[in-house]
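Table 4 source record.
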Amino acid sequence: MTEGHATSIALIMKALKQNGSPVAEFDVDDERTYFKATFAMMLTESEQNMARWLAEENQK
């Protein structure tokens, strides 16, 4: 798989930023035998509230 003109990743990053989504994570091994992109799911407001509550409970 190749990215001929290096445009798609830039478009994805721009869309993620405009959407308020978390930044994508990219990984490649030293031998460049693979390329992995991870896109986090955007949480709804209630999911964000639950995540905050869980984080607070775990700190107690």
